[in-house]
Amino acid sequence: MNVDRKKSFIGNPITTNTNTIKGLQIFIADLRTTQHSQDHERRINSELVKIKQHFEPNGSGSRNFNNRNNNIRLDGYQRKKYIAKLAYIYITTNTTKLNDILFGLDEMLNLLKSNHFAEKFMGYMILELLFEHEKVVNIIGNKIYPRLLADLSSNNDNFTALALNFIGVVGSLPSNFAFNEEVVDKVFQIVRSPTSPQYLKKKSTLAFLALLKNNLSILTEDIQRKQVWIQKIIGLLDDTDNYRVTLTSLPLVEYIAKHIDPSYCFRIIPQLTDILYTCVVLGTSDSGIYRFPTEYKFAGIPNPWLITKIVSLLNVLIASPHELSNNNNTPLQVQSQCLHPADLDPETLNKLRKCAVEAINLGNRNTNDVMQRIVQNTILFSLIKFATKLDPSDEAIVNSVQALCQLLNSHEINMRYLTLDSLIQLCSSNGKVAIDAIRHDNLDLIIHLMNTERDMSILRKIVDLLYTFADIDNVQVIVDHLLNFFLTSKHISDPQIRSNISVKIAILTEKYATDPNWYIDISLKILSLTINTSFNDDELWYRLCQIVVNNPQLRSITCHNLLNYLVEKQTSEYIVKTSAFLLGEYPSLVMDKISVENLFTVFAEKYFTVTNLTRAMILTTMIQLYKFAPQLGSNIIKFFQLEINSLDIELQTRSYEYLKIIQISKMSGDMNLLNILLEPMPPFNTKANPLLKRLGNLQPENSGITSLKNSSTTSLTESMKNIENVEPSVARRMSMKQPPLAPASRKNTGVLTPVQQNGTFETDGLNVKYTQQRLSTNFREGFVRMLLHKQGIFYSSPLMKIIYRTTKLEPFHLKISFTYINQTEWDITGLSSEIIAAHVQNNPEYIIQNVEPLTNSNIPPHKRVDQNFQVIVRKPYDIEESPLVNLYFKCGSSSNNITLKLGVGITSTIFSQSINTNQTSSVTLPQFITRWRTLGEALGKDAECQMQGIIMNNTDKNQDVNPIVTMLASLEMNLKRIGLDVIEQTNVANTLFVAGIIHTKSEGNFGCLLKIQCQADWRVNITCKTTVAGPLASYVVDCLKRIISE
Question: Can you give the pLDDT at residue 736?
Fold first, then answer.
């Protein structure tokens, strides 16, 4: 059937009819044979006139779109032929003839009305081509809706497919399709319909994605629609019999997870993991245990497109702490809802790690098939990048590094580039283990690659990689290799790479150097080598000057080294700038090597070899030398007088001003003016290295001062008493060793609450997802039963029955087991569950943890699957905010969503020793009365709650039996089931006196006393007192009210 459809959809109509459009073929041949552009233009214009005459009998050129006689005269073949010619004119003139072909737009719409596939295909195809132009949209934007909606609702699947193709192409363009509710609804109906053919489902998911990209409010404005539609879309992934629909649905699900709400997709992580495991581990195994269908294999690899798309989606849903703190491209609300690897159940996490290991083994397989090698490496790169989020073991990290480093010898440029990029990501996310694996075993390989590589993009990646794994132990080796490469390489054609290397060397030496002499030597060597660079390298000497000014012990070393460079014949201009700044500021430090006269002569010689900006600095240096040695006055005055006539206004102005300052000083006979104007340079207060801004994605997490201080206890920044020393008190504070950050734990409580940040995930104190749920109509029976009984039927319908069992690991620590039973004659597929807490941050009252995956997502008829999870009650809470369980499954052709509320309240933590030991209550009536009075006197009404007139509905109201006796017996039995102690007494016949202990993990235990009075009209009055003021008493009464009345 699919083959026949494919032929009717692609083969016969298009091929046959296109070949019969002889007029189009002749027109194209005429244009191709024209020798001159004028002939080409003349032929096009004549054809346009001819087409207009057929479309508009009056030939006036004005568009008469409603000419019925013309429409009758043209048959479908002619209309298709002329429209095809207009399309070719549009293409061959590079869209310049758009305005000349607009007259044919209505005839294109007429093609859409045709019942012939070839004509309709031609109309849609050409409109797809033209719809990017606003003029076209303005003319026929509204006219196309009726035909589009008709084709979307058509019984002819080929017509529907054409309409979906059209929406998929133009839906993301700035048109109004995404804002038309009818179009959106029609497309989604095809997506969700169980009777839609598979190939229409594929096209409709891509069309819906195009609409969603243009109008995100489709799934954000209406909360109920958001919940239902997203569940339906995610349900497309449940069809594991073939992966065709899954493959086209994954981009849509990924877009929803990335831009709308990832929490809806968490339930499918185990399912995606199973598919990934089947493809990567079982499908590539040589054992023969699992035979992957041949139709899904490409280059010997099972479904590589599906593998990469699943990994891409998992990358969105699961985020490492490093990503959560550094990702600025994702909305904050979406970032905060991503899962941490520790939130995954152990089985899923183990399967994902096995997939990563198998990808490494797959990448190491030898094959002569080029395409198979490309596929293997694609899977390897995608899974290794994802594996860094799975809290991998040290051995797994080392194996990943070794597998990648083997690919560095590849002859393919793209392969080497992707390998280096993956190594950088491994080093950034996995730290010391990955870094050690690279530098200890593969540093020579990387250095060799750097010295022999000629591709500039790969050279950048190599430099980035060396920078990434540099530390205090290997910084000198890496810097030496970078400098040697900088000096000797003949392949660096891009000046930006030179600048990039210079910046990285400067940052590494400042961050990790332990020897001040080495730091200064390298810094000046960089400045001396930057003659040919032109990418804002002024920042290099700016930074060096800041450090030297702020650290007096570096000034002498720096000035002496600068003098050695300055006296050379060829000197980098950056060296001249640095020398002008520092030697002018501290000339006394070099007087043991050069006289002040000779120093002036050196600057005068360099003056005429540098740019005007550097000359202006040298002029300032000269007046500083005059302040230091007034005997230079005559030489400096002559120099300034010479530069007064300079063509550069800045040099002319400085020379004149400095000359006037010297004259005033000579006339006054003192140097006070010069001393005031040329005061010693104060310390710089820069709090961050400006060079770090040029690192881009390689910028470290802590780019401020503290990151420099804490790099090592023996680093240069400590030995120099702080590079960023602003004032002594600040220096003392900064030099104090900072407490280390706690390492990322490899374990977690397993809480199913991904939010660990600010309150964007909650509104009005409640989890947004919790408030969006719509409880199933018959949830109350199971809810009340769970409040009262430790096991029983939680939910029952013709499709599914749910049995629960509650076990107290501790009074406040509950283990809940669910058994899902298929009650139909059909398979239940795609079963997934989600336990939703009312609060997930800001010290929640309870937490959900250790949520185990379903033993199977598919349930055969009359079979069952199990699931366990745990609830820890930390503080008292209202029963209205008890957890929810959200179930989604398919049965037959229907998709089903069930939302139920768990009967887990504050009374679930009551634990009675007498019940478990079959003893009577240890509290007597006199003791109860004494405690009752004590609580009243101590806490008053603040710890008390009263509720009267509760109608008792769950008792057999036999008129022949005393209602008080029946009520008391029923209440006593239920209260004991909960765990409360009922005091034996006969003094008050219609009243039960009850005591119990409420347990919480964080706030301890609380006493609870109750008086429950029964009335003859089947009504109950409850008074509760607790040992703590607040709402606890009302929480207890509310739970009892539900047990009694519901």
Answer: 30
Q: Let me know if 536 is exposed, middle or buried by CB neighbors in 10 A (0-12, 13-18, 19+).
A: exposed
Tell me: do 811 and 901 sit in the same domain. Answer: yes
Task: Provide the domain count of the chain.
Answer: 5
Range of the domain at 316: 261-391
Do 370 and 420 fall into the same domain? Answer: no
Q: Is residue 81 part of a domain?
A: no
Same domain, 696 and 575: yes
775 and 702 in a common domain: no
Q: How far is CA 738 from CA 700, 709, 711, 735, in A?
A: 18, 9, 11, 8
User: Which residues make beta-bridge pairs with 402?
Assistant: none
CA distance 151 to 711: 66
Q: Record the tokens describing residue 1025, joined without a space.
A: 């007192």
Low-confidence ranges of the chain (pLDDT < 70): 1-20, 57-73, 239-242, 286-292, 321-337, 491, 493, 530-537, 686-765, 912-921, 954-961
Residue among 545, 470, 551 nearest 507 (CA): 470
Query: Is the CA virtual torsion 611, 615, 617, 621 positive or negative?
Result: positive
> Contact, 573 vs 565, CB < 8 A?
no
Query: Looking at residue 937, what is its pLDDT?
Result: 85
- The DSSP secondary-structure symbol of 138 reads H
- Integer CA distances (angstroms), 436 to 67, 399, 470, in order: 79, 12, 10
pLDDT at 864: 92
CA quadruple 590, 593, 598, 600: dihedral, nearest 10:
-10
Is 845 inside any structural domain?
yes
Run of H or E including 846: strand 846-849
Q: How far apart are CA 701 and CA 707, in angstroms?
A: 8
Q: How many CA atoms lie within 13 A of 78 on its CB side?
A: 12
Instruction: State pLDDT tens for residues 618-666.
Output: 899 888 888 888 888 888 888 888 888 888 888 889 888 888 888 888 8
Of 849, 879, 906, which residue sits at a domain end? 906
Q: Which SS3 state, helix, strand or coil, does residue 1009 take?
A: strand
Q: What is the CATH number of the domain that holds 1032?
A: 3.30.310.10
Judge if 422 and 485 occupy the same domain. no
Q: Evaluate whether residue 109 is within a structural domain.
A: no
For 685-691, which contacts have Cβ atoms below 8 Å and span 24 or more sequence positions?
685/726, 686/546, 686/724, 687/724, 689/507, 689/510, 689/543, 690/539, 690/542, 690/543, 691/503, 691/506, 691/507, 691/539, 691/540, 691/543
Residues 343 and 483 in one domain: no
Angle at 187 between CA 182 and CA 192, to 5 degrees: 120
Residue 337 belongs to a domain: yes
For residues 730 and 781, membership in a common domain is answered with no
Measured between alpha carbons, how far is residue 643 from residues 612, 630, 651, 840, 942 in Å?
A: 11, 20, 7, 73, 89
> Which DSSP symbol is given to 848?
E
Phi, psi of 422 (to 5 degrees): -65, -40
Q: In Å, what is the CA distance from 691 to each residue of 476, 570, 803, 860?
A: 19, 27, 63, 63
Return the sign of the alpha-carbon dihedral for residues 824, 829, 834, 835: positive
Collapsing DSSP to helix, strand or coil, 996 comes out as strand
| Cβ neighbourhood burial of 554 (10 Å; 0-12, 13-18, 19+) | buried
Instruction: Classify 867 as helix, strand or coil.
Output: strand
Give 1007-1035 pLDDT, tens digit per residue: 899 998 888 888 888 999 998 888 999 99
Question: Are both 892 and 933 inside the same structural domain?
Answer: no
275-286 tens-digit pLDDT: 888 888 887 776
Measure the CA–CA gap between 48 and 85, rounded to whole angstroms. 9
Dihedral sign for Cα atoms in the order 780, 786, 792, 795: positive
Predicted confidence (pLDDT) per residue in 456-465, tens digit: 888 888 888 8
Final residue belonging to a domain, choices 359, 391, 423: 391
